[in-house]
Amino acid sequence: MALIIFLVVVVLIVLWLVGIYNTLVKLRNNREQAFANIDVQLQQRHDLIPNLVATVKGYAAHESGTLEKVTQARAAAMGAQTIGDKIQAEQQLGQALANLKVAVEAYPELKANQNFLELQAELSDIENKLSAVRRFFNSATKEYNNQVETFPSNLIAKNFGFHKEPMFEISQEERATVTKAPEVKF
Question: What is the pTM of this model?
């Protein structure tokens, strides 16, 4: 009788550990799927950038340094392999695009160009979609990280290579731009 109770307890413990492991796997997969959604939006942004750069070049030839930074940041973002590398590269691309927006402000005729306006509207739409999928990704990452760091699942996570993953946050430069009050000129 004692042997049966012991075996039942062992089986229950094993099933409990398998349940924790499976939960960790599901949460990791949800996070990766959430990043795949980000990748779709990032690819659309990457595809749009050469058109935007070409349009700006026609009006602002002496802004070549800014345009080169955007092009280089885009290439780095497209070449990034891991989720962490992609997050870092996309932060740099976001900053380069923010600098481009500042440079464009000096060209009223460019801001009135229909092609540029359409590209800018498309980029704005993509950025809004990116914000939504980033929120979903960060939510999935938070749920995963909570499971990885809380007891008792942290014991399983540690032994099977699960570890805390980074959120997709805006860079310090972007944060400074976002928190800065806009200038109003008349």
Answer: 0.77
